[in-house]
Design goal:
By secondary structure, this protein is of the alpha/beta class. It has a domain at 42-397: Alpha-Beta Barrel (TIM Barrel). 48% of the residues lie in helices and 8% in strands. It has a 9-stranded parallel sheet with strand order 5-4-3-2-1-9-8-7-6.
Amino acid sequence: MSEPVSGSGVPIRAAYGPDDLPADLGRRLGAPGAFPYTRGIHPTMYRGRPWTMRQYAGFGTAEETNARFRELLDAGQTGLSVAFDLPTQMGYDSDHPRAAGEVGRVGVAIDTVDDLARVLDGIPLDRVTTSMTINATAPILLAMYLVVAEERGVPASALGGTVQNDVLKEYIARGTYIFPPDASLRLVTDVFRFVLERELSFNPISISGYHMREAGATAVQELAFTFADALEYVRRAVRAGIAVDDLAPRLSFFFAAHNDLFEEVAKFRAARRLWATLLRGEFGVSEQACRLRCHIQTAGSTLTAQQPLVNVVRVTVQALAAVLGGAQSLHTNAYDEALALPTAEAALLALRTQQVLAFESGAARTADPLAGSYYVEALSAELEARARALLGDVERRGGAAQAIAEGFVQEEIAGSAYRAQLAIERGEEVVVGVNRFVAERPDAEPTRVDYSALAAKQVARLRAERAGRDGARTASVLEALGAAARERAAPLMEPILDAVRARATVGEITASLEGVWGRHGGGLTGLPRAG
């Protein structure tokens, strides 16, 4: 019988002992809250306060999303996480022909700052942190968030949260990029500049391995390619004149939690150690600046439409891995997400899962409870070594942007996805309810939503808002934004803010930039290196 392997192909022995521990275990571990942060970024971790329970939500209209947020906050959620529909992500207004059939389907439709104000109606922005999963149009949505607060009299200094702003992974795994890569990266670094200059308590980026993992990456690939992207962003920031010591503490990361409990715990521990040593080794930043802060989401790709209630168990295992691994914030998926957008009942159960882990399981009572486990320490060391080796392959190609341009990253992930699917189809990997333990009764039917009526309502509102604004003022600020885009060194966030204040739409702001830069057709050929 062949030896079993982890999801990343690491051979797993029947038992582990002292001889399997790294020789320099003490140096690798350190103490909780101390470099290299293997055991967590805070000395007492969750004893001070639990991780942020940040359930991801957003669908249909702004009012519907607001109602879901209020329900979750009333139920004990401690942070917001906003999902946007595809037209918003791609910079199209809801009445654009390419938005047809997609308005409000996978997130909330946001055309103007007033839409975002409706999403956030009645929510205390100075007491709740907000994460926005948005990338190509991240500067626009960040500007809208700031204007909503401004018009409510909430000072920018009182706001907290994260804007994802990670465009490189869009070229790898999701495809919701808009502009050519060099222009996209200019926008990313301008958000860095703006947040640091304004001293905002906002993370200007959430560097995401999650979406690569959802596309089929292994745990090792998730680590290596996420940190390759992170290094690319930091190097470009340095080239733009941003001090690493200022930027590094504001970087945040976004990882997936999958079913392989111990590999996932080991992955999070290895991630902190690897990032700390990479950042300190190349840039010489302070140890404090090397702390890796991460949001974790349970793995949507593992959810099954067959026997969907079994997903409750999968999500619980994955969330436990995140907690044992030291997450700073966590989203737990609803059991019915393989069928449709989650129902209110399923979303509440997902939140309750986190609360049981935090307050009943005992998993939060001590920092890094699996430290010293022969198995977990050996696996942490092995994942770190393999991720470092794969990162070396990326670096030898000239860094993340060049490796993506050559198709290396995409091909590596596609190969892993293919092998994983083949193993499921052959029955080598068991998926309960799919290729083993299949139920005889029919599977559940998804909830039906009338998206055509929703889209018509959103389009009517958008057109009314366009008609009611000062058109000359809007045209003037959009012209100024285009002029700034033509100047290589000009700031962009400030003219974007002016456009938002003048009620320019997401589509109009995008079109103003697109008029200068064009819309990217695919691939990264010719992308300049970070230097």
